[in-house]
Amino acid sequence: GWKMEDVLDEEIKVIQGKVGPEDHVICALSGGVDSTVAATLVHKAIGDRLHCVFVDNGLLRYKERERVMETFERDLHLPVTCVDATEQFLSKLKGVVDPEMKRKIIGKEFICIFDDFAQHLERDLGKKAVFLVQGTLYPDVIESCPPPGSGRTHSHTIKSHHNVGGLPKDMKLKLIEPLKLLFKDEVRELGKILAVPTAFLKRHPFPGPGLAVRVLGDVTEENALEILRQVDEIFIQSIKDAGIYDSIWQAFAVFLPIRSVGVQGDQRTHSHVVALRAVTSQDGMTADWYNFEHKFLDNVARKICNSVRGVNRVVQDITSKPPSTIEWE
Ligand code: XMP
């Protein structure tokens, strides 16, 4: 690999060359490793001409907004504007079940919000935003549209990652993607050099479209998001308590659009089924399902059914990538 110190110096120079002295830059922070490292890097290059925005799209995990805002302010000293766009996203997603359609809608809403934010900067503060920072990584680029001459053989779009292929062509802001040639482990290394806290750098990846690609079918299905948040939190917390969080590339729960029959107390139930997925991986391009101890799975399943209303069955995903992708949609 490359020396990350050199990559950092090089990227800072590129950004300083690209962004004119009167230009301002918007960065969409997702709360994940990639966008945070990208923002920290750009901040180092252009200082307070960077304006970070964190969008609560209503598709975030349990307490994610509070946790993320606290980290940015307390640990990273990155000034962030939080936009609550829950209604805006969920109303557009209502009734939509096609996975690609969901991704397109979400990508489009994000861009609307960034454009609005750019207008606000210009109108209210006299700052002209010209660029948008994205934490796109090399695997995202390859999977969405392989760069010409990359020697990669994918001939079609596997999924339109919203931070790559899913962006509308008519977006006014130009893109800055400082991590575009890097893999995840390299981004974590870069983050370390930039003094991003280690605990933060170890966070599992979380997809841009959020829980929308983990609630299969209609995201606005009654209580689906709420149930998923609770189940996911129990699963992740159990993984942390077992001391295995850092051995796993990514772990999460999936809400299935079906019901199954169960018996709880002496009541027959007809409730939701959730799936648990955990994988190991180097770069997200291929992955193996993670083999938990039986005792661990037994405890998690019990805890979920006992404490999350509306769930009476827990299943585990035991497929690798390929043939499956990591996310279910
Ligand atoms: P898949 O499901 O394609 O996921 O095997 C590979 C990795 O990418 C993440 N992922 C996304 N990240 N925007 C993102 O920023 C997206 O649209 C997106 N889709 C998938 C996924 O969580 C996994 O780590």
Explain what the structure shows.
The two termini are 32 Å apart. It contains ten helices and nine strands. β7 (267-280) and β8 form a beta hairpin. The protein has helices at 4-18, 33-46, 64-76, 86-93, 99-125, 138-144, 184-193, 198-201, 224-241, 294-307; strands at 23-29, 50-56, 80-84, 128-133, 174-176, 250-264, 267-280, 288-289, 311-316. With 329 residues, it is an alpha/beta fold.
CA(first)-CA(last) distance: 32 Å
Q: What would the average pLDDT be, to the nearest integer?
A: 92
How much of the polypeptide forms β-strand, as a percent range?
Answer: 15-25%
Tell me the series of helices and strands, N- to C-terminal: HEHEHEHHEHEHHHEEEHE
Instruction: Point out poorly predicted stretches.
Output: 150-157
Can you list the strand order of the major beta sheet? 3-2-1-4-5
Please work out how many helical segments DSSP would assign.
10
Main sheet properties: 5 strands, parallel
- Beta-strand segment tally: 9
Task: Give the secondary structure arrangement, pairings included.
Blueprint lengths: L3 H15 L4 E7 L3 H14 L3 E7 L7 H13 L3 E5 L1 H8 L5 H27 L2 E6 L4 H7 L29 E3 L7 H10 L4 H4 L22 H18 L8 E15 L2 E14 L7 E2 L4 H14 L3 E6 L13
Parallel strand pairs: 1-2, 1-4, 2-3, 4-5, 7-9
Antiparallel strand pairs: 6-7, 7-8
The chain binds xanthosine-5'-monophosphate.
The site of xanthosine-5'-monophosphate (XMP) has 14 residues, from loops.
